[in-house]
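Troubleshooting: if your tokenizer reports a length mismatch, compare your output against this known-good record of 284 residues.
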Amino acid sequence: MADISEQNPGLLKRLSHAFTRMADEQPVSIADYEDATGVSVQIEQLNKSFNGNHVLKDIDLEIKPGETFSIIGPSGTGKSVLLKHIVNLIKPDSGRVFIDGADIGKRSITDSNRFSYSMVFQTSALFNSLTVGENVGLWLREKEVFPERRIRRIIREKLRLVGLGGKENLQTSELSGGMKKRVAIARSLAMNPDLILYDEPTAELDPVTTDELARVIDSLKDMVNLTTIIVSHDLNFALYLSDRVAMMDKGKIIEVGTPEEIKQSQNPIIRNFIYTTTKGLKGD
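Known-good structure output:
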């Protein structure tokens, strides 16, 4: 299988962006690395169109520091487009996104608003030419934050957090789909992010592997202090993991609530989505 950078040359640039400190392009210091904490996300009147198709429509959303927040809805409702706006991979036509009070649309963010984020891509986006450990340590080695001995220790620690302790020397070709997802999470955790984002993490996974991945992400709540945003069409996955959930439909957020509030919602769009995706909660 070809290396992912050969299959999609533009992906390396996007990955580098996703592993870069969201501040003013100053070098990452050890103090920055050790000082990660959950951050708030606030979205105000966000709009985006592509070729006349209005994909995001006046999106308003507030996510609390340290919260696990899921954005759910059928395919084609704008969930992944919204996620890419949060990490500044797409520029809005109008509206603003604030992370920890800083407007990410501005070219310069003051040092008092320094934060980092990392994104787990739908395809895992691992490099086939690298071992598991080399994939996990990619950002650390690029930024030269620590000496090599410390980097190797961090790699081992992050793989242990996702249940892959001792697997750093495996080739990516030896991994199952679920293991690849966990390696991608470990790689994101290696940069000690304040905010981690998952784009359809259960895509192409069977139910058993999906459950395993849910348990891994859930266990991280007690072990790392960060804000988590999940985009998914998998309702059960989102309800299991989330403190709060936002339902999207036709480019709009139609309701935000706790998992229990979403399950009890009387909005007919939400009721239909619950019924068709869980087959059993409609009458609860």
